């Protein structure tokens, strides 16, 4: 099959440190997470802040090391790979961040910022070849080369995200991990950046892991959506199933705050009670039971397991469906 990335049983626990010493307690940031992404598709990871979605992105990218589980990229298990092997995947796997300003060096001209990864990974290129590549990628991303002698602060937020995308693309990656790439932007600019990402995906067969707290942002870019809560995926399904027929009460709650253009259609409105619990001491059984409007007595005792529900490759971990 054409799976580009497959993650299985991935775990990352962070010890809780209390100033001087670390206790024996852990934040289970990512707890037995499994999914796969096909080449050329987009999987969105959605959940509230603290659900582990950014940690998951950083594990896959190798910025942090997993405690257990497999990260199979193009057939190689990176979780068991050497430093050298990881380094060889620096090129085909790139990241885009929420705040391009923070990730762009303020003292470098943007043409230097974009040329830098090429200098590292393609040192045999001549100066002219490098400049030609930088020019072409900037223009593909909607920045006129005329502006390439400027510094990041001279650009707007949306333009800076275009520069961040150009820098990620210059090495012709296959997988892009985009962590909240439009959350810092105005809604009208968000749409422009999402359209650019979609066009780039089509033109270059890119695969996206798209991390967001906002289901309305991922609605038009996703092929599949995984909903995370306190370190677990609670529902994973094709986009249409998530938006038209969500199963997990948490997915339904996230969706009920997404506006629908057609006022005749109505989504079940679910208001969540309370805050997301402390990840160091999550509720027993279903971690969502303290906020779930449909919780039953079994929910605080037994952990629901992932099950396929219906005929749309929809998987959900909830006692309502077992
Ligand atoms: Fe709600 Fe129970 Fe389902 Fe958890 S398992 S989401 S508490 S109904
Ligand atoms: Mg985050």
From TrEMBL:
Keywords: ATP-binding, Nucleotide-binding, Transport. Signal peptide: none annotated. GO terms for molecular function: ATP binding; ATP hydrolysis activity. The keyword ATP-binding applies. Residues 5-255 form the ABC transporter domain. Transmembrane segments: none annotated. GO terms for biological process: peptide transport; transmembrane transport. InterPro entries: AAA+_ATPase, ABC_transp_ATP-bind, ABC_transporter-like_ATP-bd, ABC_transporter-like_CS, Oligopep_ABC_C, P-loop_NTPase. PROSITE patterns: ABC_TRANSPORTER_1, ABC_TRANSPORTER_2. SUPFAM superfamilies: P-loop containing nucleoside triphosphate hydrolases. SMART domains: AAA. Pfam families: ABC_tran, oligo_HPY. The keyword Transport applies. Belongs to the ABC transporter superfamily. This is ABC transporter ATP-binding protein. It comes from Pullulanibacillus camelliae.
